[in-house]
Structure formats: C-alpha cells, structure tokens
Design brief:
The protein is mainly α and about 110 residues long. The protein has helices at about 5-20, 35-55, 60-75, 80-95. The chain is globular and about 40 Å long.
Amino acid sequence: MKILITPETFNRLHCLRGEKKFLEESFHPGAPTEKIRVESERRVNDFLDDAILLLQRGAEKHDLFTRARKLIRTFDKEDTEEREKVGDYIGGTMRIIGIEDWTEHL
C-alpha cells in the first residue's frame, strides 16, 4: 500500500533536510570533528533526498525501510554517538511521514 503524503509532510521533510545535523545537544556530544559532522550530515541528507523522491513516486513502507537500512550500514564503522544519532534522524523522518512501527523493520 502506497504512503499518502501531504504538502505539509513534504515541507517538514524539507525543513529537516535543511537543518544542521550532528551538533552538540542534550544527551549528544556532537560529532568529534567538523569533517565527521559534515560527512555524517551529507549521508543523512542523501537519505532524506531519496525518501522525498521515493514518496513523490508513491513509495511503500518497505521502500523507505530498505533505504533506511542502507543509511544505517554506512555508519557501521562510526563512533557510537554517530550511530545512535543517525537512528534519531531516521526516527524523525518516519514520524514526519506518519510511520510509527519502523524500528522493528530496521
């Protein structure tokens, strides 16, 4: 079953895409270097670009889960903080889209 997305949902995804990522915040120290932060942000933004494109084409949940798993694999060799934070960005994306049962699929 295809996911139906509203213009507001696309707007929220684009806003998330435009945010600076992997910064220091409560319970997250931020990326250890600016180089790592920028590279981590690029991978998350690539995921968001792909998610937006998939949704515009009428994607199903499993398409998004497949793309999210691909993103997670790119962080396999990163520090724990970056691996955990990428999960937060995936979760934020799924909540914006309206998918609440995503964790069991990744």
